[in-house]
Each structure stands twice: as structure tokens, then as C-alpha cells.
Specification:
mainly alpha; 2 domains; three-stranded antiparallel sheet; 19 helices; binds s-citryldethia Coenzyme A
Length: 430
């Protein structure tokens, strides 16, 4: 018997269906609420509102669970690699050896971008933030591949767009960095794997033999896995709502890149390092900064702390915290901000303000420390997040299209002026 709930409005009873997920999550289906009752619901920030049914990622904020297509993030981060996880998220199952080999080959042979992309890049001043360059270059693919604008493209056409997105994102990312530092761009070296190829495009200088340290490539691969998807977060919901208008995969993901850029979302990883550096330069006075974060009159927030869903701990933060120790140890780096971050976490987790509000370190709290150890500049931290989140955005866009979901169009409650007569100040007609 399908579950229902009863809603009583002005003495009249309405029966609403309940949707039950495979992990026993419950939702009240209000698809017909306005037609039945004339009422809509209000949930600013969508804190309690489901926008879709999805089979891609499951997370449980109370118990700190994160699974991609049913596989625990801890296992995938430890045993898998980014392209295998990308295939899993996008196509729904772990690939066979042959499927992974083909996916990897297809991506490797599409890493080059059209030479005219350089003309777009040259239009950006070196002061341009790499995230703005990245979202522009990513959307420019609609110009080079106009067939992607067709919402009814055959499956092999969509596959090609997916491969091009995965293949060219690292090239766009590295080129956005080179533009930022005023260096000539590097072309992708297809003899290398995904992460080593990216690091070489980022850091190789003209006429220099650049070798990526395998410790660095491995750490980057793990970070990309940990960022790969996170159900209906701000940027993913943006990709879905843009995709729901049947916009191309490239313009939908470009919109997601821009949503991720915000300091409350993916931009937090950059702000965490800025915050930790400020505390270090302020003599490491952690109590002072904790007090600022708690002060309602102070706009300062503890960046990298708190989460809309995780109210116990962010499993990714735990993995990244351990990885930060490992990577800095292997690279022989003693970064004072790591110690400040660890002390900050320790003090905050004992402070009633944070405990009562269930504020814990999130994915962004330690990731910046690893990026810095890998030599990634701060302005590129959110670009790294976008590179990791790309397969998740692709998977969610593909699922939305496969389910033929309607165009997203929320309602509102109007609070403006009632009807007013229009009186012209002066006659409009000369
Ligand atoms: C990501 O959604 C996702 O899945 C996102 C993400 C992903 O993988 O896609 O996980 C990636 O975006 C991680 C979050 C990165 N952002 C930050 O680290 C920025 C700092 N954190 C916050 O601004 C905040 O915690 C949010 C934005 C993450 C969540 O905000 P909510 O859920 O809207 O909570 P809120 O702003 O309503 O805060 C609830 C209370 C408030 O205090 P009261 O009004 O109850 O007194 O907690 C306080 C807030 O002032 N609060 C903080 C705080 N975060 C919340 N106070 C100090 N420092 C903080 N970091």
C-alpha cells in the first residue's frame, strides 16, 4: 500500500502521496498541491525541498555517509582512480577493463583544444580570476561544437560531448592558470595520465623537462575523486536547472562552474587558506578568530566549517585531513597553517557555539592545505574543485535528460505593491 499523508487546510482534508527512496528517505509529493489547494510551499534556500529523484549519489548528513552509485567514498578514494570513478558516476556502473581502457583512450585523444581558444584566452587580462576564464572557455565549446546545441542529439553525440568535457577541462584549467601568471600555455602531453598531464600543463616552463612527482599525482587523483559528486548542492542544482531548459551540456556546466565560484560553496577552499594565513600573520591568535566567527555583528565566518547537510562530520574532510598529513610528510613539507587548522578544529569542536549548530570541518577545510603542498596557487583551488566535480555535473545533467524532467520553474509569494494607477510626470508623446 503506497504511503500517504493528510494535510488539513481550512478544515478540508487533502491526501498527498509519499515518495520513499532506496535508503528509506521520505518525501511528500506536492506536485499537485497548488491545483488541489491553491497553496504553494515556501522553503527559501531549499533546505527541506527535494528537486528530483536521483540514483547517482547518496549522502546521510547525520551519519556522515557518502556513496557514489552505492560505493562508499572511503573505498573509492582508497582503491579506485578518478577516471574509473568518473565512468561509474556518469554511466552508472563500474567499467570493465575494456570499457575503462576505451574511456581513457577517448579522453586522452581529445585533450587538445581548437587553436582559436587562444584568441579567447588572450582577451582576458592576467588579473582575471581563473574561475571566470574557465567558465568562459568551457562555454565556448558551444561555438566549436555547435552540434552540441541540439537537445535531441543521438547517444553517440552526447558521449562525444562527455569525452570532450572530461578531456578539455584540465587543458582549460591549466591555460587559465598560465594566463594568470603570464606564461605561454603548454599543450597536453598524451603520454601521461590524467593528473600528471594536467600538472605538466600547469607548471612546465618552455624548454624544461618537467616530471610530476608520483606522490603529487596520486594525491591529486584522490582529491578529484573526493570532489566528484555531492547530490543536489548549489552548483549541481544550477547545472540541472540550466539543463532543464534543454541548454547544452557545455553551457549547463559553465553555469555550474560559476555557482561553485561563490565563497559559501566551492570558493570556500580558497577562503580557508586566506583565513589560516590571516590567523598565522595575527600571531596564531585562534581564540580571537573563533570569537569573530561567533560574533553576529562580524561578517567573518569560519571558512571550511559547517555544511547544509552534514550535521555530524563530512566524511571527505576526514579522508583529506589524513591525506594532508601523508602528503606533507612524503613531500617533507612543514606547513605552519596545517598546525593552525588542526588547533582551530580542536578548539571549535569543543565550543558550544559550533557544537550546538553542528558545525564541523567540511571538504574545503583541509583541501587547500594539500593543494598548496602540491604547488597549486590559491586562485586555482576552486578550479581544482571544478575539475573534480565535472563527472558529477555530467552525470546529473545526463540523468535529468534521460528522465525527461520538465523545465525548472519555482513559484513565489509576491510581497510588492498592489495595483496602482499610472500617472505620467510629463506627456510621453512629444
Ligand atoms: C561546499 O552542499 C554541498 O554539498 C556543498 C559541498 C559540495 O561538495 O558541493 O559540500 C561543498 O560548498 C562546502 C561548504 C563550503 N562553505 C564554507 O565552508 C563557508 C562557511 N560555511 C557556511 O557559510 C555555512 O556553514 C554553509 C553555507 C556551508 C551552510 O550554511 P547553511 O546550511 O545555510 O547554514 P546557516 O548559514 O543558516 O547557518 C546556521 C547557523 C547560523 O547561526 P544562527 O543564525 O543559527 O545563530 O550556523 C552559523 C550561522 O551563522 N554558521 C556559522 C558557520 N556556518 C554556519 N558560524 C560561523 N562560521 C561558520 N562557518
Amino acid at each position: 500500500m503506497a504511503k500517504t499523508v493528510e494535510l488539513i487546510i481550512e478544515g478540508k482534508s487533502y491526501t498527498l502521496p509519499v515518495i520513499e527512496g532506496s535508503e528509506n528517505e521520505m518525501a511528500i509529493d506536492i506536485s499537485d498541491l497548488r491545483d488541489q489547494t491553491g497553496y504553494i510551499t515556501m522553503d527559501i534556500g531549499y533546505k527541506n525541498t527535494g528537486s528530483t529523484k536521483s540514483a547517482i549519489t547518496f549522502l546521510d548528513g547525520e551519519t556522515g555517509i557518502l556513496r557514489y552509485r552505492g560505493y562508499a567514498i572511503e573505498e573509492l578514494a582508497e582503491k579506485s582512480n578518478f577516471l574509473e570513478v568518473s565512468y561509474l558516476l556518469i554511466f552508472g556502473e563500474l567499467p570493465t577493463q575494456e570499457q575503462l581502457a576505451k574511456f581513457t583512450h577517448d579522453i586522452t585523444t581529445h585533450t587538445l583544444v581548437h587553436e582559436d581558444v587562444k584568441k579567447i584566452l588572450d582577451g582576458f587580462p592576467s588579473s582575471a580570476h581563473p574561475m571566470g576564464v574557465l567558465s568562459s572557455l568551457f562555454c565556448a565549446q558551444t561555438a566549436f561544437y555547435p552540434e552540441s546545441l541540439n537537445p535531441n542529439r543521438p547517444a553517440d553525440g552526447v558521449y562525444l560531448s562527455i569525452v570532450r568535457s572530461m578531456a578539455k577541462m584540465p587543458t582549460f584549467a591549466a591555460w587559465s592558470y598560465k594566463n594568470n601568471v603570464g606564461h605561454p600555455v603548454n599543450y597536453p602531453d598524451n603520454k601521461l595520465d590524467y593528473c600528471a598531464r594536467f600538472m605538466k600543463m600547469m607548471f612546465a616552463l618552455p624548454a624544461e623537462d618537467y616530471e610530476t612527482d608520483p606522490v603529487i599525482a596520486d594525491a591529486l587523483d584522490k582529491l578529484l575523486i573526493l570532489h566528484a559528486d555531492h547530490e543536489q548542492n548549489c552548483s549541481t542544482s544550477t547545472v540541472r536547472i540550466v539543463g532543464s531548459s534543454k541548454a547544452s551540456i557545455y553551457s549547463s556546466i559553465s553555469a555550474g562552474i560559476n555557482a561553485l565560484w561563490g565563497p559559501l560553496h566551492g570558493g570556500a577552499n580558497q577562503e580557508v587558506i586566506v583565513m589560516l594565513e590571516a590567523i598565522k600573520n595575527d600571531g596564531g591568535n585562534i581564540d580571537k578568530w573563533i570569537a569573530k566567527a561567533k560574533d553576529k555583528n562580524d561578517p567573518f565566518r569560519l571558512m571550511g566549517f559547517g555544511h547544509r547537510v552534514y550535521k555530524n562530520f563530512d566524511p571527505r574532510a576526514k579522508i583529506i585531513k589524513k591525506a594532508a598529513d601523508d602528503v606533507l610528510g612524503k613531500l617533507g613539507i612543514n606547513d605552519p597553517v596545517l598546525e593552525i587548522a588542526q588547533k582551530l578544529e580542536e578548539i571549535a569542536l569543543k565550543d558550544p557555539y559550533f557544537v550546538e549548530r553542528k558545525l564541523y570541518p567540511n571538504v574545503d577545510f583541509y583541501s587547500g592545505i594539500i593543494y598548496r603542498a602540491l604547488g597549486i596557487p590559491v586562485d586555482m583551488f576552486t578550479v581544482m574543485f571544478a575539475m573534480g566535480r565535472l563527472p558529477g555535473w555530467i552525470a546529473q545533467w545526463r540523468e535529468l535528460r534521460a528522465n525527461n524532467e520538465p523545465i525548472g520553474r519555482p513559484r513565489q509569494i509576491y510581497t510588492g505593491s498592489k495595483l496602482k494607477p499610472y500617472t505620467a510626470i510629463a506627456s510621453r508623446k512629444a
